[in-house]
Automatic annotation (TrEMBL):
InterPro entries with a match to the protein in the record: 5hmC_binding (IPR052181), EVE_domain (IPR002740), PUA-like_sf (IPR015947), THYN1-like_EVE (IPR047197)
Domain EVE: 2-149
Organism: Noviherbaspirillum aridicola
Matching CDD domains: EVE
Name of protein: EVE domain-containing protein
Superkingdom field: Bacteria
Pfam families registered for this protein in UniProt: EVE
Length: 152
DNA sequence: GCCAACGTTGGC
DNA sequence: GCCAACGTTGGC
C-alpha cells in the first residue's frame, strides 16, 4: 500500500467531476511525462491512497481523497488525432503512454499550498519543492497521516 | 502574463 | 553523448 499525490487541472477534471462520474471512477488520461508514467506502470496498485490536487487554477491545493482503482493500461487519448494528448509517435502495438483509473472517495476542504508549507511534517513533500513539475509524486505514510488528520 | 525550472529535441 | 534551443509547467 502506497500513497500518491496526483495533480489535475480542475478546468479539465475537478474533484467534483470525478465524484460525479459513474462509481466516482475516472481514467487519469493525459500524463505525458516518463517519470510519472513509470510510477503508474511500476509502482501503483489498486487501493493505493491518492491526494487529489487541483493545479493551474485560482486556488491550487489538495481538494479531495481518492484511491487507485486499476493497474496501468494504455491511454486512449494518445491514439486520437483530435486530442491535445495525441502522440503521433505512439502505436497500438507499442503504446508509449499509460494511465490508471482513479476512484474519487470524497471532497475535502481545500488545503492550500501555503497551508501545506506551514506544516513542518510536510516540508519534504515533492510538491513543495521549488520548480516541481511532476504531476504524480509519492507521499510518505507520515505525510499522508498528517494531511488526513488536517482534513478531518 | 511573467518567468523560473525543468524535460525534450536534435545538430554536431 | 554533449548541450543549446525550445516547449511546457504552474505558482504568482
Amino acid at each position: 500500500m502506497q500513497y500518491w499525490l496526483m495533480k489535475s487541472e480542475p478546468d479539465e477534471v475537478s474533484i467534483d467531476d470525478a465524484l460525479a462520474a459513474p462509481g466516482g471512477v475516472v481514467p487519469w488520461f493525459g500524463v505525458r511525462n516518463y517519470q510519472a508514467r513509470n510510477f503508474m506502470r511500476d509502482a501503483m496498485r489498486e487501493g493505493d491512497g491518492v491526494l487529489f490536487y487541483h493545479s493551474s487554477c485560482a486556488e491550487p491545493g489538495i481538494a479531495g481523497i481518492a484511491e487507485v482503482a486499476s493497474t496501468a493500461y494504455p491511454d486512449e487519448t494518445q491514439f486520437d488525432p483530435g486530442s491535445k494528448y495525441h502522440d503521433p509517435k505512439s502505436t497500438r502495438e507499442n503504446p508509449r503512454w499509460l494511465l490508471v483509473d482513479v476512484r474519487a472517495l470524497r471532497k475535502t476542504r481545500l488545503m492550500s499550498l501555503p497551508e501545506m508549507r506551514a506544516h513542518p511534517e510536510l516540508a519534504d513533500m515533492q510538491i513543495l519543492r521549488r520548480g516541481n513539475r511532476l504531476s504524480i509524486t509519492p507521499v510518505t505514510p507520515a505525510e499522508w497521516r498528517c494531511i488526513i488528520r488536517e482534513l478531518e
